[in-house]
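To whoever is on call:

I kicked off a structure prediction for a single chain this morning and the downstream step that reads the tokens threw a length-mismatch warning. I double-checked the sequence; it's 793 residues and nothing unusual in it as far as I can see. Pasting both halves so you can look.
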Amino acid sequence: MAKPFDVCKGLTGANAPTKVEACTEAIKDGKLAAGDLALAYLNRGLSENGPGSDARAKDDYKAAIRIYNDLILSSPMNPYYYVQRGVIYQTIGEADRAILDYSDAIRLAPRETYPLINRGVLLYLRKDNNEGALADLTAALKIKPCEVAAWANRGVVYKRKGEIDRAITDFTDGIKCLPPKLEPIRENAVYDPLTTQLSSKVLDQNNLVLQAAFIYFQRGLAYYDKLQYDKAIADFSETIRLNPAAASGYVGRGAAYLAKDELHKAIADFNESLKLEPGQAFAHLQRGIAYHRIGEADKAIEDYSEAINLTPRDPTPYVNRGIVYYTKKGLYEPAINDFTKALELNPKEVNALINRGITYRQRGETDEALDDFSEAIRQGLQTADLLRLVNQAERGKDPDLARSADQVAHAYYQRGMALIDKQDYAGALNDFNMTMRINPREPRAYLGRGAANLKKGDLKQAVGDLDEAIKLAPGLAFVYFERGTAYHAVDDFQHAIADYTEAIKIDPKDPIAFINRGMALTYIDKIDQALADFESALQLSPDNVNAYIHRAFAYALKRDYARAMADVNEAIRLAPDSATAYFYRAQILAFQGESERAIADYGKSIKLDPKNARVYGNQAMLYNSLGDYAKAVADLDQAIKLRPREPVYYLNRGVAHFGLSKYDKAIIDYDEVLKLDPKISAAYNNRCLSRAALGQDYPKAIADCNEALKLQPNDPYAYDNLGIIYLKQGDYAKAAAQFNASLKLDAKRARSLYGRGLAKSRSGDSKGGASDIAAARAVQRRIADEFAAYGMR
């Protein structure tokens, strides 16, 4: 059976109520010496809990102090009593009174080290007086050159000042003073090293081992700051050997393993630390990072959530949980909520701004993304001088500066990518160049600049930049992934698939790479391979909303609508506020001909995300197919307002204007298409037909159709449109020749048969004309109505 006073001191690892009970028993026993009695009152006060605990704790602290007040009154020249009372004041947070007591002890016993050490600790911990602390600790070392506590604490002060090498020297000198082959602490749990000074056994073996564990731990932290992780791990391991019941050594070693990317070892250490000391927010946070990196998204979210519960004012776990939500789960709304909460806690949290911007961008909310990236740059530059950022020597000297530099560089990169979305390529290139200026070795800068140049059509420069990114980081999955997305964005799916494949080889546990490769495979009609990729993503992340959405779309392309609807409905169940899920369900419903339900889902998507141009654009295509051209124009007006440099929206609005017989407006839209991209043959074709229908500028109309044929030499639409122009001009031989060219490509083409029938009839071949017209009507019953719209009956 442990003695009550041992339980009171914490030697058995008892919980707070048990310690209160033991301290009370030890006090009532009446056999404790004055110092131990004061310690019993102090520990009981620190352990008080439940209703009325604050009042009881204050009474206990007063009782502990009263014991030393009486001792000092009876022996005012005894420095030991001042030290002990100072320890109590220090423990309960009354730093100024503690400093006064230590100062009196130093005056009375100028050759004693403990009051100097304790005052030095208070000066740097509570008063932020590093220089005063250094003076006290140096004075203690002059008195006793092998005072381990003085070496340890002076090293801590140097570390606080950023003088890591001097800190390591002090820790090493202190370690040299330790006896060889120290045995580990024997008790299950060890009381606080400060309150041990109130014990009658101040210099016992356990206290020495505590000092040894502390100094090894501090040197491990210093090595960690120097990025010397193997040395840090060795010191943390010695800390654990000396004091296996303390959680701190496991936390430190786990952090070092995490930095080395030895993730399973890190998780094992964090597990052990949390067994020893549950409720450590930092350990949960770090273990969450490790789980995140090995692809255990649910466990990562669980740890980040626990860290939030334990430290609800800390923005970091909110940021980390938000990153898991959007990268591993495809859940944008919860991610944005977490980043927003982090920014409420700390408006200068640059990582929250960057990641919220990325999430907005993935949701298609480019303007919101740009605002966040710009604010991140502004905040970052408040703490980082650009002239210093570009100085690599300075980056090496100041880790905080380097981190700030990386954040600012990343924000410029992300803003550049958002500007590409806005088709502001000049602005994007400026941002990527700024990224390079801050960090010339940052591969993302080259990836971004390459993506912008691809969009501009500068293929040679683009490929050079994209390849340079790979040279800078040949073994990193994200570089191949980002190069893949750049190719993906310009519909170069073969290159995109090759890069996604390389990213998967390097990191086979990232579901996003499988999802993106699956999307690219659908575009080249390799649906079964795409389905396999989406299945792989779901095996890695079983409730990944994006994987369900894109698998649903792939099933729809195979006309397997039952599975498609099952998947997209599951996505909506998992993320009922996902505008993307409703958008894709609308697409799938439209494929099935369920136009009314499709329009309802487009409406839900727009309500959830009213700034997504793609939704308006696709709904307009459905309205065009239904002949509801006025609604199509309204949707396309909105899409163009949101993305004014997207040629497909002008092209489709031209089609809608044509359907409304507003040929002049259609021609203006096609003009805009060709300003944005002069290689879109459909715009030449449609402008050709609009001019023909308007009955003006036939030479320009013919030139447009010929330009379309240059771009697409076997385009039957262009031949038909030329035939219509020649029909309207009365040149029936040329018209028939054009329709014949079209019929060589498709012998049952209704437009060509009907047009040739008109040409034959008007040139005197009534029988041949009637035959062609009948054949055309057999294929398309209302073909005559189309030609009537062009002014031909």
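Update from on-call: the warning came from a stale cache, not from the record. Cleared it. Sanity check on the structure: The chain has a mean pLDDT of 91.
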